[in-house]
Amino acid sequence: MKNTGTLKVEVRGEREILLTRVFDAPKELVWKAMTQPELVKRWFGPRGHQLVECEIDLRPGGKWRYLILMPNGHTMGMRGEYLEIEPCDRMVHTESFDEYAEFGVGVITSGFAEEHGKTTFTGLQVAPSREVRDAIVASGMEHGAAETYDRLAELLETL
């Protein structure tokens, strides 16, 4: 896995990580691909990983859950709750990992801005502490996220 430059990652403040990626698709299509389970299953995770469980209850107070099967046969579970939903423009949700309870719960704000048929996606992750933020960055998250969003871009080309 490697970030080939399509994903910009910026560490900000005490607890923030900002991801920015431009997709060659209108924001309605990017939103759909990021919020409909049957589409999310087709792109979420780095190459070689498979999203085997994808539950999305897209409303404030609704829950989401992903279970990823990794190439080594292990699974990684993620979950959270939607706090705010502005269809095709913005969503705010919590995120935690089953295997990393010590990381606590982060909050992610996703934004979608379209210009000339291209969508700039921003994902601002606020970690519970600076130490957790730094551990996330050190984990290689940038490269896995970049490859995941590359897979999303490939899917968007087919929709």
Task: Give me some keywords for this one.
159 residues, alpha+beta, Alpha-D-Glucose-1,6-Bisphosphate, Chain A, domain 4, eight-stranded antiparallel β-sheet, 4 helices, 8 strands
Order of helices and strands: EEHHEEEEEEHH
CATH superfamily: START domain
Count of β-strands: 8
The backbone outline, from C-alpha atoms, is globular
Give a short overview:
The chain contains 4 helices and 8 strands. It has 159 residues and is α+β, with helices and mostly antiparallel strands.
Write the layout of secondary structure elements.
Layout: E1 7-12, E2 16-23, H1 27-35, H2 37-43, E3 50-56, E4 63-69, E5 75-86, E6 90-97, E7 106-115, E8 118-126, H3 130-138, H4 141-158
Antiparallel strand pairs: 1-2, 2-8, 3-4, 4-5, 5-6, 6-7, 7-8
Helix pairs in contact: 2-4
Describe the structure.
With 159 residues, the protein is of the alpha+beta class. It has one domain: 2-Layer Sandwich (Alpha-D-Glucose-1,6-Bisphosphate, Chain A, domain 4), CATH 3.30.530.20. It contains 4 helices and 8 strands. It has helices spanning 27-35, 37-43, 130-138, 141-158; strands at residues 7-12, 16-23, 50-56, 63-69, 75-86, 90-97, 106-115, 118-126. The chain has an 8-stranded antiparallel β-sheet with strand order 1-2-8-7-6-5-4-3. Helix 2 packs across helix 4. The longest helix has 18 residues, at 141-158. It starts with 6 loop residues before the first strand and ends with a helix. The model has no long low-confidence stretch (mean pLDDT 95).
